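Fold this sequence, please.
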Amino acid sequence: GECMLKDKKVSERVRSLTLGIIEQERNGETAPQRMLLKNLTKMMIEVSKREVYEPCLEEHFLKHSTDHYRREAGQFFASSTTPDYIRKVFKRLSEESDRVERCLDEATKPKVEMVIKTEMIAAYKQGIIEKENSGCLRMLLDWKVDDMRLLYECLKLIDDIQCMVLVIKDYLLQHGTKFVMDTENNQQPLNIIDGVMQMRDHYTELLQKAFLTDRDGPKPHVDKTFETAITKAFEEIVNKNTRFPEYLSLYVDSKLRKGKTQLPDEEYDAIFDKVLTLFRYLREKDVFEKYYKNHLAKRLLHQKSTSDDAERSFITKLKTEYGYQFTSKLEGMFQDMKLSQEKNEMYKQHCAMADPKPPCEILVQVLTTTWWPLPTTNNITLPPVMEQAAQHFKAFYLRQHNGRKLQYQYNMGNVDVRFRTPSSKMYELNVSTHQMVILMLYNNAKCLSLADILAETSITPQDLKRALFSLCHASSKTHSPLLKKEAGSSEDTTKYTFNADFKSRFIKVKISQMVHKETEDEAKETRSKVDEDRKWQLDAVIVRVMKSRRAMEHRQLVADVIDLLKGRFQPSPDDIKKRIESLIEREYMERSQQSRSKYNYLA
C-alpha cells in the first residue's frame, strides 16, 4: 500500500480526487464521494502519516486552502459589512474544524485554522476595524455591543487586539473630553457628573458583555487590556476639567441635602459606589476634600442633612478607600455636633437654675477650628438682648473649659424672630444673624439708609448687601418683601423702609438667603489654600523619607515622594525641588559634599 501511494501518478490521482471533493464542499455543492474522502485519508494515515499523508495530501491541502481563502477573503471583504465578514470567518473555521474531525488527521486542524486566521483575519485586520459604515467606530456610534464582541473574538484569534483597544480608547477620550469641557454643561455641574456616571456605566456594561476572556470557561473575566485602557481614558476625562473635584463634591451635596435631589435611603449605597469610582480617577483628591468639607459643614450647621447614617456611610467608604488621614477632620466635625448637642442640654439645665437668666433662648454649636472650614469673621454690633445671651453662654462655657478661646461666627448663624404688623397679625421669621440684626433696627426707625445700617451694625459691606437683597425680595409663592428699597443719589444714601403691609400665606416664614456662588476670586483663594496645605504635606513626606533613609539621591527621593502622595494629589518634580530647597534652608537636610544630587538628613 505504501509503495502504491508513493507512486507519483497514483498520489496525484488520489490528491486531485480528495481536493476536488473538499472544493465542492467549500463551495456549498453536494459531494457524492464524501465517504471516499474519509476512506482515502484514513488509508494514507494507516500506511504512514509522516511519509504518505503529510507529503502526499496535507501539504497540498494547506496550499490549496491558502489559495482558496485568500481568493474568497478578497471577494467577500469588498462586498460585505464587518460583522457579516466576521461571521463568515467563524463559519469557515467551524466548517474546517468539522471537516478535519470527519475526514483528516487531527494534527491538520490547527494548521488549516492558521491558514484561515492568516488569510481572512490578519491580512484584513486594519480593514476589518476601519471599514467605513460598519467598522469599530460605527459600532461605537451605534452602540452595537454584540458586533463589538464579534470583532473582539475575531481579533483575539490572532492575538492582536491593540488596534481595536486604541480605537475605543480614542473614541471615549474624544467624546468624554468634549462632554466635560462643554461650556453649556459647565453651567449645570450636576449634569456633568450624571453624564460621566452614565458613560462609565455604559462602558462597564461593554466590558462585561463584549470583552470577556474565557467566556465559556468556569471563570470568565474582563480582558485586562481593555479594562486598563477604559480606566486610563476615564482618568484623562475626569482630570481634563480642573473643576471636576468641586463638581463631584456638589453632586454628593445634592444627594445628601434635603430637597428635590435627595435620594431614597435604599439608593445611597449604589450612588456612593459610583461617586467613589469617579473619585478614584481624581488626581487632585485634596481639592475634592476641601470642597466636600465646606459642603458638609453647611449641611450640618444648617440642619440640611437628610440622614446622619448616610453621611457617615459615605465617610466610612472614603476612610476604607483612603485611610484615616483623609477623613479624620470630617469625623471630627460630627464629633463636634454631638458634643454641642450635649453641651446645649447642659446649658439648658444651667439656665433653668441660673440667676440672672439669659434674656432669650440660644443654641450654640461649638466648632473646633482645625476641623471646620471656618470663614474669616468680623465682630458685629448685636442688639443688647442678643449680646447678653451670647455673653451668658460664653461665661458658662469658659467656666467649664478654662483656657479655651470662644469666637462667635455671626455670618453662619440663624435666628427665629417674632414680629407683629400694625394690623396685629403675628409672624415668626427664620432669618440669618445678619438679617436679624438689620430687622431689629426697625424697632426704633421706619426708614434707614445703607450708611445708617452700616454704622449701626458694623456688618461688612459685602455681607450687608447680601442680607438686604434677601429682605427686599418677595417670594412669589409665600410672602411679600420685608423691606422696600428706594434708590438714592449714591449707594450710601439708598433708603430701606420697613414694609408695614407685609403679608404671608404662613405664620412661620423662612427668609431665604441670597444664593452665594463661588466667585473667581474665592475659587482662587480655595486653590491657594489647597496649595498651602500641599506645601506642608510635601515637607512632612520629604522629612519622613529622609529620616528613614538618612541619605538619598535626588531622583529616588522625588520618585518616593510622588508615590507616597499619589493618593491625595500628584506633585510635580519642580514643586518637590522647591520644598527640598526650603528644607535645606531650614536645616532639615543638606546636600552631600560628594555629590550635588545627593542629600543627607540632619537630625
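The CA atoms of residues 479 and 504 lie 4 Å apart. The chain has a mean pLDDT of 88.
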